């Protein structure tokens, strides 16, 4: 019988955020695959976990997945952890999990902290739906292109950013999403210098330009404010018909939302437009 791969979340700063189950599973498995074994050893020592560690990081993912899969197939149970938070969330692990799934090996989540979810849970921005895009690109051109792609997003946009690129990213956000767009920046979550900044993009730039930014951070961009309706309902219908591949049903829905009028009225107008066509 094959073993089980446990995907175990670990603290993002505060060691007390380790779950009882995470400690037990890490004690019981034959081997723990960790991004940086020296870094994880400190966490394991804190909980007196003696299980051997093996490295599993972005540079050896492919070869190591093969090895770990073989051990799982021989019946050993293993755990996967990352430096902090939940493995596979902007962290290595996806390849191993995917290979286990294809090989019919059980993969079990031992959930716990994730910087993304922690930031969303305290920011006060809409979370019923959100879009997570991992790290913003490091190069300005690529970053600006990505921001342009998501500037009109109607869900909260969540990303990870490094402290030394934050100011440059904020300049681009001010320019592309607008100076008044609301942001939340969660810095050093669960740690001594935890900070949550809430305010406009331009205020964020001023706040974080005062000195060197330190620590880890999650950047959340509020959804784009609804567009002011332009012209008449008929013109809006024509515009969406000409400029998008949306169905009439979707066009009617969007225009009704934009103008704040009943869908039945917009539907009637769309019928008359289609007749004229
Ligand atoms: N898998 C991890 C998770 O679930 O949280 C994220 C890994 S990603 C490589 C690391 C990034 O997460 C950091 O660069 C930072 O953007 C964010 N992060 C991690 N710990 C954080 C913390 N304590 N406070 C704020 N952001 C954090």
Molecular structure report:
- By secondary structure, the protein is of the alpha/beta class.
- The chain folds into three domains: 4-113, Cobalt-precorrin-4 Transmethylase, domain 1 (3-Layer(aba) Sandwich); 116-221, Tetrapyrrole methylase, C-terminal domain (Methyltransferase, Cobalt-precorrin-4 Transmethylase, Domain 2, 2-Layer Sandwich); 233-276, no CATH class.
- The protein is built from eleven helices and ten strands.
- It has helices at residues 20-28, 37-46, 61-73, 94-102, 115-123, 140-150, 166-177, 201-208, 233-243, 248-259, 263-276, and strands at residues 4-8, 31-34, 53-55, 78-81, 106-110, 130-135, 156-161, 182-187, 195-200, 217-221.
- The chain has a five-stranded parallel beta sheet, with helices on both faces.
- The longest helix is centred in the last third of the chain and has 14 residues, at 263-276.
- Bound molecules: S-adenosylmethionine.
- The site of S-adenosylmethionine has 22 residues, from α5, β8 and β10.
- The site of S-adenosylmethionine (SAM) has 22 residues, from α5, β8 and β10.
């Amino acid at each position: 019988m094959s073993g089980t791969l446990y995907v175990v979340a670990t603290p993002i700063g505060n060691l007390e955020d380790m779950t009882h189950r995470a400690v037990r599973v890490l004690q019981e498995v034959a081997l723990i695959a960790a991004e940086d074994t020296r870094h994880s050893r400190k966490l394991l020592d804190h909980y007196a976990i003696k299980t051997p560690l093996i490295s599993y990081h972005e540079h050896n993912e492919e070869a190591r997945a093969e090895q770990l899969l073989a051990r799982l197939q021989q019946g050993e149970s293993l755990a996967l952890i990352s430096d902090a938070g939940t493995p596979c969330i902007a962290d290595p692990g996806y390849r191993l999990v995917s290979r286990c799934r294809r090989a019919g090996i059980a993969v079990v989540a031992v959930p716990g902290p994730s910087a993304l979810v922690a930031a969303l849970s305290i920011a006060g921005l809409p979370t019923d739906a959100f879009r997570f895009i991992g790290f913003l690109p490091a190069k300005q051109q690529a970053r600006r292109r990505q921001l342009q792609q998501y500037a009109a997003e109607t869900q909260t946009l969540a990303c990870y950013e490094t402290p030394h690129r934050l100011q440059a990213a904020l300049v681009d956000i001010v320019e592309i999403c607008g100076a008044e767009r609301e942001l939340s920046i969660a810095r050093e979550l669960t740690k001594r210098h935890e900070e949550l900044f809430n305010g406009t993009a331009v205020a964020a730039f001023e706040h974080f330009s005062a000195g060197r930014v330190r620590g880890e951070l999650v950047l959340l961009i509020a959804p784009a404010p609804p567009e002011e309706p332009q012209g008449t309902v008929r013109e809006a219908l024509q515009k969406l018909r000409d400029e998008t591949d949306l169905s009439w049903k979707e066009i009617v829905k969007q225009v009704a939302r934009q103008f704040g009028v009943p869908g039945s009225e917009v539907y009637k107008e769309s019928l008359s437009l289609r007749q004229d066509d």
